[in-house]
Amino acid sequence: MRVRFAPSPTGALHIGGARTALFNWLAARHAGGEMVLRIEDTDRERSTPENVEQILDSLRWLELDWDEGPIFQSARSERHGEALQALLESGHAYRSNATAEDVKAYKQRHGAERGFRGEAEDSGALRLRVPEQGSTVVHDAIRGDTRFEHVHLDDPVIARADGSVLYNFAVAIDDLDAAITHVVRGEDHLSNTPKQVLVLEAVRAIGFAPPAPLPLYAHLPLLHGPDGKKLSKRHGAASVGDLREAGYLPEAVRNYLALLGWGAGDDATVLSTDELIERFTLERVSRNPARFDEVKLTWLNGVYIRALPNAELTARLEAFTGREGLGPAVRISQEKIHTLADFMALAGPLLDGPVDDPAARERWLEEKGRSVLADVRGALAELESFDEASVEQALEAVLAERGLKPREVYQPLRVAISGRTVSPGIFESVALLGREETLARIDRALVEG
Predict the structure, then answer these.
(1) How confident is the model over 192-214, as pLDDT tens digits?
(2) Percent composition of the chain: helix, strand, coil (DSSP 3-state, to 5)
(3) Which residue of 66, 98, 282, 410 could cross-link 37, Cys pair, CB 3.0 to 4.6 Å?
(4) Catalytic residues, which ones?
């Protein structure tokens, strides 16, 4: 099996493109095949080196490697020109100056369902001759066979008058030369496929390239947002870069994207990459649109975070935040965070000092709260050991003496040491800060309220 992932470098690698790359990669790895990376950069105005690097960086972050490439489509213009000339000389293509209005008039004369057929001229764009009889059948691993009757197909333009080739022609020649056996891409390309198949059959008929079977196609279902509408920026993260900046783990993203339109067959949700490779087949991809729900991705990412060894999570968080020495804070935060970005929001006030939250102070550091906090300070100050177990015993003693609910003791202390009503476990947080810093923060809260 040889598959290809062929993004256009006109912007960031969006989530739909990432899923296409993943499905190609999984199919190739499952079959022991190869994945070719092709950069379709013929749109010279919008294709930039920065966008190319952004795509490559996103693929590297997702840990989707490729076996050949990147091959730049723009570097293959000479080969495309050779194929055009061969088709022109053999009569499989012809020049035509027909305009859109000419095509419209033709259909008015012959019927809207009749494909346009032009007359050969000395100049103009190049069109591929579609056979008058018969049909083109697209073999699709997901959708089955789709038949396109030739009588309904226009002779497609394959190159402009200046010789620059159009997308469907370049793609077909590139797939042919790369010996691609399976074309896995979004269903928005389905209407392009018969044109590409016709190009492949034409160049094969004239012996332009060694005989080879047509690729097996697989058109993936579209991605929608949770509301059932086409996935876009309004649904949250729109690109791989967005997911990376939001603190998702690449292995969790791979797991989640694999489940968008594909099922393992047993309702399994948490699947390692090795398990995905073992189970993945194109035949199990659904024809129905899949829904990308960032809430579900966040949940799954949390599962992966909690499964990481502390040392590994610490290393990732230190790389993500650019800070060192986070190990102790990571240990007490791991059970409460769902993304890497959650960490500083949760543990940052312990590391950098309390934040200013007037609502939290008003709710928990009023007169009663400060009175409770004074008792807490006294209990903590008397501890011989300041570990988590000792802190817990001291706070439970205050609870018992005052006959209060846990939150009536823990929340004033939490606001005093972090400024917020949410933090890692209170015993762990106090022990992490240590006696001196904890008492200093409590003293400031007692004075300032």
Answers:
(1) 999 999 999 999 999 998 888 99
(2) 55, 15, 35
(3) 66
(4) 233
